[in-house]
Design a protein that fits this description.
By secondary structure, the chain is α+β, with helices and mostly antiparallel strands. The chain contains nine helices and 19 strands. It has three domains: 156 residues, 2-Layer Sandwich (Nucleotidyltransferase, domain 5); 72 residues, GspL cytoplasmic domain, C-terminal subdomain (Nucleotidyltransferase, domain 5); 144 residues, 2-Layer Sandwich (Gyrase A, domain 2), CATH 3.30.1360.
Length: 402
């Protein structure tokens, strides 16, 4: 899996930094770019947006609840006393490592988070994860990472996988000893311009590096604190409220559609059964008339075979007699074409072929009769009874004498 990491210094910034991480790539240097270049880079990659750490509250709390629903409800109140904003205006995400007692918590103003999402949409981008930029710094065991930039008054400090903060340069010398003591760090990973001063406590080893322009794959460890988790984007709540009254209507429509599908399925099954019965009658008559002859499943082919056999049985190659084989073969296709026509009985005598059929309406019955009645075949209704939703009729079908 490939990752595109976008780091923006503010909502108003017209240029950003980006880095790429791949399966075998543990770190990458940030490169500067305009927003427009990122759309092409994002194709086929998971996108992480890094926003200023100052935009979020990054903290932890000892919350005894283990049930996720209870934990989600308890998190805002665990930090309520330390927050400058009302908890109703904030969006919270949390994550507890399996071997840790404390819950790691991120909080951000809901409106501000929506603004970052809208910023991405403005440039035809979307992020899978949004995290504070302090998480891009590398971490090591028993070490604290500190990055200072010459052109900015801010300092980023990452003291563990899920914790860190942003500080003003003027305060960092005073804060650093307590941070190192609390984390029991023995080493300071430091990225500091030469002309900036920093007081480092005695006994702390220093490892210098170009940390502020490097993205470490330790960032991927922090994905559970994704600020997009459980965030309802602006407008989605209004849509849900608007759709609420239609839930019962939708359920009723689904129920009716289900009943309709079952009804249509049963009717199709009955029609297929009756059609199979008619096909069976044609086959039986054919076998009785021409025993031992092969039977083709295609009734168009069977009709041709019947015609050839009948011609062979007459001295002049034509026949004036009514043949049940030829009549049945010629009307089988027409029954299939007129959906709703069903055949209950088939009887053949000297007068011709008698079909007892059922149709849903007189108009469909007449269409079927007209389709059968051709230059070579005569079809007439000899009896008919109608009810509210069906017509039962007997048709006499016979071949026209030539």
């Amino acid at each position: 899996m490939q990752w595109l990491i976008i780091k923006s210094s503010s909502l108003e910034a017209e240029t950003v930094e980006y880095a790429l991480l791949g399966k075998d790539q543990q770190q990458d240097n940030f490169s500067r770019s305009g927003w427009s270049q990122l759309k092409g880079l994002s194709r086929g990659k998971r996108v992480i947006l890094l926003i200023p750490t100052e935009d979020v509250v990054l903290n932890s709390a000892d919350i005894p609840a283990s049930n996720q629903k209870l934990l989600t409800k308890a998190v805002p109140y665990a930090l309520e006393d330390s927050l400058a904003e009302d908890i109703d205006t904030l969006h919270f995400v949390h994550y507890r490592e399996s071997d840790q007692k404390d819950v790691n918590i991120l909080a951000i103003n809901k409106t501000l988070l929506q603004q970052w999402i809208d910023k991405l949409k403005q440039h035809e981008l979307s992020a899978h994860f949004i995290l504070p930029d302090v998480f891009a710094l590398p971490i090591e065991v028993d070490a604290v990472t500190l990055s200072m930039a010459l052109d900015q008054p801010r300092v980023l400090v990452r003291d563990s996988a899920f914790s860190g903060f942003a500080s003003d340069y003027a305060l960092i010398s005073a804060l650093l000893p307590s941070v190192l003591e609390a984390s029991e760090a023995k080493t300071l990973l430091l990225d500091k311009p030469d002309n900036l001063e920093l007081t480092i406590p005695e006994g702390i080893a220093v490892k210098a590096g170009n940390l502020s322009h490097t993205c470490s794959d330790s960032l991927l460890q922090t994905l559970p604190l994704n600020l997009l988790n459980r965030f309802a984007q602006e407008g989605s709540g209004d849509i849900a409220k608007y759709l609420e009254p239609w839930k019962s209507v939708a359920a009723l429509i689904m129920a009716i559609a289900g009943l309709w599908a079952v009804s249509i399925g049963m009717e199709n099954y009955r029609l297929n059964q009756r059609l199979e019965g008619l096909n069976s009658s044609i086959t039986q008559i054919y076998q009785a008339t021409l025993p031992g002859e092969p039977i083709d499943d295609d009734y168009g082919v069977l009709h041709s075979i019947m015609s050839e056999k009948l011609k062979a049985l007459t001295s002049n190659g034509t026949t004036k007699a009514n043949s049940p084989l030829e009549i049945l073969a010629s009307i089988a296709a027409k029954i299939k074409q007129h959906k709703g026509i069903t055949v209950s009985t088939v009887r053949f005598d000297d007068s011709g072929l008698n079909l007892a059929i059922t149709a849903p309406s007189l108009s469909l019955l007449e269409k079927f009769r007209a389709a059968v009645d051709t230059d070579t075949m005569n079809a007439e209704v000899i009896s008919s009874t109608s009810s509210a939703n069906k017509v039962e009729s007997t048709l006499l079908i016979k071949k026209v004498s030539l």
